[in-house]
Amino acid sequence: MATAASPASCFHSWSCNERGRQLSLSSSLFLPAASTNFQRDYGEKLITLSTYRSSVRRVPGFLSRKHKGFKVKCSITEKNAKPRLLKVMISGAPASGKGTQCAYIVEKYGLLHISTGDLLRAEVAAGTENGLKAKKYMTKGQLVPDDIVIQMVKDRLEEADSQGKGWLLDGFPRSSSQADALKALGIKPDVFIVLDVPEEVLIERVVGRRLDPLTGKIYHLKYAPPESEDIASRLTQRIDDTEDKAKVRLQSYAMNVGALSSIYADVMQKVDGNRPKLLVFEEIDRVLTDLQDKYERGLTAGEKIEVPSGVIYENKDNWRGIPTRLNSIPHSREIREYFYDDVCRATKNAVEDGIHKLKVQITIPELNPEMDVYRIGTLLELMRELAFSFARDGKRVKVCVQGSMGAGIFAGMPLQLAGTRRMLEVMDWGEYESKGTFINIGSIGANEVTDNDDMFILMAPQNAVGNCIIDDLQAMVIAAGDRPVIIVNPRLKDLPSAAGVMQIRGREKRMEFAGSFFVCYNFRLLYLSGTQYPILGALRMAYPSQYELYKRVDLDSGKERYALLGTFTEEPTTEEITAAFDGRDPKKLSNTGGLWKILFGSI
């Protein structure tokens, strides 16, 4: 093991994520004051721990005190093995959104993007041997023969940047002959992604496209109209962007991709492209991440290797969909961080899309006030992580918890929120004075809204017996204008007083406002009605995804997993959930119910 310079800090526990694998670091390790690598051989495994100072640590609130300004990167690899790089082909009809998805893939995975059209133009411009051959055909308006294009692709893939990054072949091969030629050269993808979009949708996309000849920007008359009449007046339509010509191109594409599907059947992944672009990429991202996990998994699940320094590496299967053992209390740090990340990602997506009245509803056992394992500390952690996720982008966030309601002997607040304002004030908000600059603490009400606030995150606003928080909440939303207001785990149902005031006076308007918040994240576990054990399944929605219904399945090994039963565009009803669990089509519900319909419930 490499020796270090004088130690700067000591970690008693640590967890990090290496390409999706959860690795926990326990016992104690003295980290050096400068960057260094620790490396150790264990039979066929090579364990590397890299420590280094991070230049981005000055971002407000990024660190809690225990991190001490260091990043830790763990890797577990086969000894003497070269890293497996992703090799991806993607195919899509004209107007399928292939270009957008290629940009997303390259941005996240750093692959070499190869488009044969761009490659031909570059070779011709550079005057290479292949370029000069291709130019003879291009100047005559003829198609460049396959052998020249194949040679260009082969040469490009053999260049050093491709060898070190992996590659993405964009729209190539187009025919079975091209695919066979690539296969003969040993060029085969790890995955062949096909964007599947209905023909009528593609035609609508093609026919509505317009080009601004001045800027080169592409518009669509329906989906991305020009910003002004001046721009609209100068837009032009490509000669090929007519319905008749689009149909011919689509027929040709369908024939070619049909031939390719038999060649790449073992690695083909069809992706529904008739969805919002972020949702399409979410599925592609899941496919590519699964591939990386498969190729880079170094240890078997649960295997531990103890290093002489006292460091223990433990590899765990990466979660896909829903973490397991959610009735094991308290939740592990990994499970809590899984949900914190899930909530933050969905909420940021919604805010970036311009939605400013948002609701997060998450009722894992530690965040479900109806369970006796409810922990206010977990909710406080979630609030902090959500605030940090926006503060890192330079947003000034006000985290709010309601104050006392009522007057005189009737003054008070819900028991679950008692003392939380003080906890927010004294909890760890990082070493770089994020609290008081990028993050401030406040109450719920219009008077808390100032010009210095960019957004507001409200912690579990809820009504109390005889008192209603909704009036203060509504006044705050109005004062905030178009600035985002995010309510986390609200409980805004009426709780009647002895006189029944909240049941009658203004209830309809209150409930209308309470229901006006856009749900950007929803997670709840499913049980038999009236019970909290065992878990039958889970319902999850993380914007912009649809609602996902999972069934918990016990495995022979004693473990469990969550199997996806289906997706819904809106939150499914109890009847629809019951139908899915019974193996029936939720869209074809009958009026007759059974035992499940009577007993099935959720919390």
Automatic annotation (TrEMBL):
<dbReference type="InterPro" id="IPR027417">
    <property type="entry name" value="P-loop_NTPase"/>
</dbReference>
<keyword id="KW-0547">Nucleotide-binding</keyword>
<dbReference type="InterPro" id="IPR033690">
    <property type="entry name" value="Adenylat_kinase_CS"/>
</dbReference>
<dbReference type="GO" id="GO:0004017">
    <property type="term" value="F:AMP kinase activity"/>
</dbReference>
<dbReference type="InterPro" id="IPR053021">
    <property type="entry name" value="Chloroplast_ADK"/>
</dbReference>
<dbReference type="GO" id="GO:0005524">
    <property type="term" value="F:ATP binding"/>
</dbReference>
<dbReference type="Pfam" id="PF09353">
    <property type="entry name" value="DUF1995"/>
</dbReference>
<protein>
    <recommendedName>
        <fullName>adenylate kinase</fullName>
        <ecNumber>2.7.4.3</ecNumber>
    </recommendedName>
</protein>
<dbReference type="InterPro" id="IPR006259">
    <property type="entry name" value="Adenyl_kin_sub"/>
</dbReference>
<keyword id="KW-0418">Kinase</keyword>
<dbReference type="InterPro" id="IPR018962">
    <property type="entry name" value="DUF1995"/>
</dbReference>
<dbReference type="InterPro" id="IPR000850">
    <property type="entry name" value="Adenylat/UMP-CMP_kin"/>
</dbReference>
<keyword id="KW-0808">Transferase</keyword>
<dbReference type="Pfam" id="PF00406">
    <property type="entry name" value="ADK"/>
</dbReference>
<keyword id="KW-0934">Plastid</keyword>
<dbReference type="GO" id="GO:0009507">
    <property type="term" value="C:chloroplast"/>
</dbReference>
<keyword id="KW-0067">ATP-binding</keyword>
<dbReference type="InterPro" id="IPR036193">
    <property type="entry name" value="ADK_active_lid_dom_sf"/>
</dbReference>
<comment type="similarity">
    <text>Belongs to the adenylate kinase family.</text>
</comment>
<keyword id="KW-0150">Chloroplast</keyword>
<feature type="domain" description="DUF1995">
    <location>
        <begin position="336"/>
        <end position="578"/>
    </location>
</feature>
